[in-house]
Amino acid sequence: MVEEVSDEQAEPQGVTAGVLQGIPHAFMQKGSKGPDEAAALAAVGQGGPLLMVRQVHSADVVFVTDPASHSRDIAADALVTKCRELAIAVVTADCAPVLLADEEAGVIAAVHAGWRGAQGGILGNSVSAMVRAGAQADRIKAAIGPCIAQESYEVGGNMKNHFELGDAACFAPGRKDHWQFDLAGYVAARLADAGIEKVEALAIDTYRHPDRFHSFRLATHRGEETGGRQISLIALPAS
Fold it and tell me: Could you tell me if 31 and 10 are in contact, meaning their C-beta atoms sit under 8 angstroms apart?
């Protein structure tokens, strides 16, 4: 269990998933000074580097082979690597951070999954990239970190119309002409489609825990600055 933190604390704390036990990883909570990369690296016992991309709600995956040449200006929404002594990360503020690992093959992934990316194939593409690197889908373990929960995620018909009839289970009736969307459930379904059987959703609602997590939607509703993000990262165990 992780104790709640206040904005006055200088360093964020990390939440971990049981399914990834033994894999250095953390879903960081917010700190008072914005995303703290040093604290994130310390949470997974890494000295760096910490690799990220410029997230654009796409289905694009970057496979990292040479950390020294990696650029944060690459437009993508997932990283996959077999490199040790580094960490890969995404940032979120309601979208779902997804961390994946096949420890036997030594392959990990960090994925930013908003509804557009999840629908566009970011999760399946990430699994495919891991498999090409030597992973096996039936060995991959996945954790879905803190994200906006269904009861907090009201959507209109324009968004719902982007989905197939088979996705109806992810939409609960809301007020007139609106629905409550289950982002974590949709992400889990896409992981299952990709052959991932070991999935843990942490079920922590970013919207309802503003003392612990940034929420783009809550900040918008409050008329506050919406740029806050928290880091989710994963690394391979030291060899």
Answer: yes
Q: Percent of the chain, pLDDT > 90?
A: 89
In a domain, 143, yes or no: yes
- d(C-alpha 54, C-alpha 195), whole Å: 27
30-34, 38-42, 172-176: least confidently modelled range: 30-34
- Domain contains 202: yes
The answer to whether 125 and 61 are in contact (CB under 8 A) is yes
Report the alpha-carbon distance of residue 226 to residue 229 in Å, rounded: 9
Cβ atoms 217, 207 nearer than 8 A: yes
Q: Report yes or no: 118 and 163 within 8 Å, Cβ to Cβ.
A: no
- Written as one letter, the residue type at 223 is G
Domain count, the chain: 1
Peptide bond into 35 cis (omega under 30): no
- What amino acid is encoded at 134 in this protein? G
By residue range, what is the domain housing residue 136? 14-149+195-235
User: Strand pairing of 87-92 and 107-113?
Assistant: unpaired
The pTM of the full predicted model, rounded to 2 decimals, is 0.94
The verdict on residue 161 lying in a domain is: no
Q: What is the spatial distance between Cα 203 and Cα 216, in angstroms, rounded to a whole number?
A: 17
